[in-house]
Write a structure and sequence with these properties.
Order of helices and strands: HHEEEEHEEHHHEHHEEHH
Largest sheet: 3 strands, antiparallel
Number of helices: 10
CATH architecture of the largest domain: Sandwich
CATH topology of the largest domain: Jelly Rolls
Structural class: alpha+beta
CATH class of the largest domain: Mainly Beta
Strand order of the largest sheet: 1-6-2
Distance between the termini: 35 Å
Number of strands: 9
Shape: globular
Helix content: 40-55%
Length: 253
């Protein structure tokens, strides 16, 4: 498995939090007996910042259920420029193409926030998807929500300011992490949003001067979430509303 993409800095810091499969909302939403059947096959793995889970168009052998980590799904141009099309955290699964009929990743899944995930062999997930109706319905609803996020991200990247995009990114991360502290460099954020680093420096500076965030050496602390929500464009609420509608018992408000 590749370890890191050259455009993304490697920071080997992983928060220490007690681990449970229930920390992933998809797994927690499964009936108890089905989760117990899967439990012995779930492997807890560390997720290091910058780690590439599967190269673009490579065969997908495993899926990942993040618990305390966040994974960016990135698309790249031929000249190496990148843009995040969606993120996956404790609400979801990395590897939807596997159970949707494909065996390769159409994008590059890169760990943007370090932590842990549960890894499951792809053929076992396919068995569950094909024969266990609750699992199938759950994964299809999640995929629908993920597609909404991908579509809205495209709209946001095209029509909204860098500051609005940064606010959206921070809020989506907060929804998927147990604290208000994020580990992300400005270079990483610029790669995710597909903008120049100078634009991120300017946008982050505005938020810091307004006492909404505090940024220091790759660590961002959100000081005022409510104010952050007033700065963000409508894209954040569109995506959150769809996740809450499709997965009402899983996503914390």
């Amino acid at each position: 498995m590749p370890t890191a993409h050259p455009h993304i800095p490697h920071i080997p810091h992983i928060p220490h939090i007690p681990h449970s499969a229930h920390q992933n909302h998809l797994l927690a939403a499964l009936p108890t007996d089905e989760l117990e059947q899967l439990h012995s096959h779930l492997e807890l793995v560390p997720m290091l910042m910058g780690e590439v889970l599967c190269e673009h168009d490579y065969k997908l052998n495993h899926v990942f259920f993040p618990t305390t980590s966040i994974v960016s799904l990135l698309n790249f141009t031929k000249d190496g420029k990148s843009t995040e099309i969606a993120m996956v955290g404790n609400e979801g699964i990395v590897g939807v193409s596997l159970f949707m009929g494909g065996n390769t990743m159409p994008n590059l899944p890169v760990v943007q926030s370090p932590g842990y995930a549960y890894r499951l062999k792809g053929h076992l997930l396919k068995q569950e998807f094909n024969h266990v109706m609750p699992m199938q319905h759950l994964l299809l609803r999640y995929t629908h929500a993920l597609l909404t996020q991908i579509a809205q991200t495209a709209v946001c990247n095209r029509h909204h300011s860098v500051e609005q995009q940064l606010c959206r990114l921070l809020l989506l991360c907060l929804d998927r992490l147990p604290s208000n502290e994020l580990t992300m460099t400005q270079e990483l954020i610029a790669n995710m949003l597909g903008v120049r680093r100078e634009g991120i420096t300017e946008a982050a500076g505005k938020l810091q001067r307004a006492d909404i965030v505090y940024y220091h050496r790759g660590h961002i602390t959100v000081l005022d979430r409510l104010c952050l929500e007033t700065k963000v464009c409508e894209c954040y609420k569109v995506v959150k509303k769809e996740y809450d509608r499709l997965l009402p018992d899983m996503i914390a408000t």
